[in-house]
Amino acid sequence: MTATTSPNQADPAFDTERIESAVRDNAWLHFTQMADYQDPDRRPLMLVRGEGTTVWDIDGNAYLDLLAGIYSVNAGYGRQRIVDAMAAQAAEMPFVNPFGYISVPTAVLADRLGDLAPLGGEARVFFTSGGSESVESALKLAKQYHTIHGFPHRYKTISRRVAYHGTTMGALSVNGLTDARSAFGPLVPGARHAPMSHRYRCPYCQDAAACTNVCYDEIERLVEFEGPDQVAAIIMEPVQNAGGCIPPGSPDYFKKIRKLCDETGILMIMDEVICGFGRLGRLFASEYYDVVPDLITTAKGITSSYAPLGAVLARKAIADAFAEPASEAMPRPVQAARKGGFQHGLTFGGHPVSCAAALANLDIMLEEDLPGRAEAMGAYLRNALEATLGNHPNVGDIRGVGLFLGVELVANRETKETFHDNALLAWLTDQMRDRGLILRNDSRNDPTTQLCPPLVITREECDRTVGILEETITELGRKLGTVGTAHATAAN
Question: What is the pTM of this model?
Answer without folding.
Answer: 0.94
